[in-house]
Design goal:
153 residues; mainly alpha; 4 helices; 0% strand
């Protein structure tokens, strides 16, 4: 981030309540409120409106109820069987995407940060695919034979 100018620092110290960019002050036309395709005089972090945080929170609460509903359907209405895990993982990935993009500010970060986040996601998906490949390639053991050693010939 670039450093603020001496003039701006002086204004902030002398008149904190009326200086654009200070907390609680919103002046139309100030550099902090300029469109994001315009070069700012001071580099600053992106400010997400509280309404967007509330919307993501509502989405997470809806997905929480969807998760509980999927479990309830699996337990009491219709056994989902092998679909239970993929459904739960899809809901979990949707929650993680909302958290990473909005709460962790990856959506508003530089392209480099977004590339590193996508790279991490790529390697985590490789790990999951290899784990599921190993899990699905093993023969299933009936629950009544778990822990029982079969006698040899």
């Amino acid at each position: 981030m670039s450093k603020p100018t001496e003039e701006r620092l002086g204004r902030q110290l002398e008149h904190p309540s009326i200086t654009p960019g200070n907390v609680g002050h919103d002046t139309v036309g100030a550099p902090e409120n300029a469109p994001h395709d315009v070069d700012h005089s001071d580099d600053h972090p992106h400010h997400v409106p509280m309404s967007q945080y509330y919307a993501v929170f509502a989405l997470l609460m809806v997905l929480l109820f969807v998760t509980v509903g999927a479990w309830w359907v699996d337990q009491f209405v219709f056994p989902l069987g092998r679909w239970s895990t993929p459904i739960a993982l899809a809901i979990a990935f949707a929650k993680a995407f909302a958290i990473v993009t909005i709460f962790m500010h990856v959506k508003f970060s530089s392209r480099l940060v977004q590339i590193f986040a996508c790279t991490g996601l790529f390697f985590v998906s490789i790990m999951f695919l290899m784990t599921f490949n190993d899990y699905l390639s093993r023969p299933s053991t009936p629950p009544d034979q778990i822990g029982i050693v079969q006698p040899g010939p």
